[in-house]
Specification:
CATH topology of the largest domain: BirA Bifunctional Protein, domain 2
Largest sheet: 8 strands, mixed
CATH superfamily of the largest domain: Bira Bifunctional Protein, Domain 2
Radius of gyration: 28 Å
Distance between the termini: 57 Å
Number of helices: 18
Helix content: 40-55%
């Protein structure tokens, strides 16, 4: 039997201990901010019923769902005509009832409806779990990746959007990352569609202009024409989505352009409220009104938020928005929510690219005790336990091996301190502590090891 070469699916990754320490630093930082604002943790299953997921992300999103084959003989109920005709869409409906979650927002809406009698509204939750998308893998885009979501549901107040912007600002300040926060409002986009006489094409319009940064204005226009928009309508959109000036200037210009659209004016009013909060409680991050921001997801109905790094060349690292009736799909209409999602994997790439991970976070073990024999090992065990109780990450080499090998282990693991206790040290009550970075050695009274190493 031939030896199989080990591999993993494209778009997925293994993570080394060093990478996991960095990832946990990101997760812990984000969670600490979520908790500070009163958000509570939940988790949902990796798999959801396809009936829960399908139709919530638009046509393009549905294509990116990973479907899970039914257990047992999944072809048993398959229609022969669908098999012969290679009709994958209809065939999928009979051989697959479940799928891997595409994001955390739709499962959250399903959770709220299922547990409505157990939770208090407004319900503030955070969720940190992996999601899966059958996308084409490329730099910064993976098929399996983590999202760190924070949502509040059961409140219409624009104050919630403001609080989410504060959370974004706090998270990236803690991560020492300069970001640009982009804002728009889906009602403004609907208003634009109305005044150019193409209200029924709102989905096509938003999906196209959301690609402006990636493919440029000419290709966006070509896609709009391909979707059936008249040339005159496409021309009318240009000055709107390319609107320039300060945030206030853009809003004033929009009021004139959308004066005949009640929906559009409502979107402008919501943004003015949000900028009003920002003017009172300023945040560090730059905030920009970007009318090309659409995010292409059908469930957004109000504010749209996207965050990009100002110093690293990578796509969106955080995004979200207001959804007024996502729970209505599951039989609980009229419940408004708003949320954002931090892309942990992309944030990792940004911090790595900029080399701004804090060094101290990488020290998983601070002290290694050299093993000089069974007697010395027995002597060291209670000392090791005491250091651990003081919160000092400590290891003892598992076997008595050559000193050179044990030192090499400490060096390769980047362990900053090595403690040597042999017969002489046992008799004197002092330990030899070596700083692996400087090479300095100090004799330290064993009872004072914890205070010495804590410094």
């Amino acid at each position: 039997m031939a030896t199989q070469k080990p591999s993993i699916p494209k778009g997925t990754r293994d993570f080394s201990p060093e990478e996991m320490v960095k990832r946990n630093y990101i997760f812990d930082t984000i969670k600490s901010v979520f908790k500070r604002y009163g958000y509570q943790p939940i988790e949902t299953p990796a798999m959801e019923n396809l009936s829960t997921l399908m139709g919530k992300y638009g046509e393009e999103g549905d294509k990116l769902l990973f479907k899970v084959l039914n257990s047992g003989d999944f072809l048993e109920k398959a229609d022969d005509a669908h098999l012969k005709g290679k009709d994958s869409l209809k065939l999928t409906n009979t051989i697959s009832e479940k799928g891997l979650r595409y994001d955390l927002t739709v499962p959250f809406a399903r959770y709220v409806v299922q547990h409505r009698n157990e939770i208090s509204f407004p319900f503030k939750r955070y969720q940190v779990q992996p999601v899966w998308r059958a996308d084409k893998p490329q730099k910064g885009r993976y098929r399996e990746f983590y999202q760190c979501d924070v949502d509040v549901i059961g409140s219409d107040s624009i104050f919630n959007e403001f609080e989410l912007l504060q959370i974004v600002d706090d998270v990236f300040n803690k991560l020492n990352t300069n970001v640009l926060i982009k804002l728009n409002n889906r009602k403004i986009l609907s208003g634009i569609a109305e005044i150019i006489g193409q209200a029924e094409k709102i989905v096509d319009i938003t999906v196209a202009i959301d690609k402006l940064d990636k493919i440029g204005i000419e290709k966006v226009n070509a896609e709009l024409l391909e979707k059936g928009l008249p040339k005159e309508a496409v021309q009318k959109i240009q000055p709107i989505i390319l609107l320039a000036g300060t945030n206030s200037e853009k809003l004033e210009k929009l009021k004139k352009l959308l004066q005949n659209s009640e929906t559009g004016l409502k979107g402008i009013n919501e943004l003015e409220q949000l900028f009003g909060y920002l003017s009172v409680a300023k945040i560090h991050s730059e905030v920009e009104l970007d009318l090309s921001l659409a995010r292409g997801l059908n469930y957004y109905t109000g504010a749209i938020i996207e965050v990009k790094s100002k110093d690293a060349s990578i796509g969106s690292i955080c995004g979200g928005g207001r959804y007024d009736d996502l729970t209505g799909i599951f039989g609980m209409p009229g419940v408004s929510g708003v949320g954002i999602s931090f892309g942990a994997d992309r944030i990792y790439d940004v911090l790595d690219q900029l080399n701004i991970f804090p060094k101290q976070e990488l020290d998983t073990t601070k002290v290694l005790f050299i093993n000089l024999g069974s007697d010395e090992q027995q002597f060291c065990l209670p000392i090791v336990s005491i250091l651990r109780k003081f919160g000092i990450n400590t290891e003892i080499y598992p076997e008595s091996d050559k000193m050179k090998k044990q030192m090499a282990y400490a060096d390769k693991r980047s362990i900053p301190f090595v403690v040597i206790i042999g017969t002489n040290e046992m008799n004197s009550g002092k330990a030899m502590v070596k700083n692996m970075k400087s090479g300095d050695q100090n004799e330290v009274i064993i009872n004072e090891l914890s205070s010495f190493l804590s410094q």
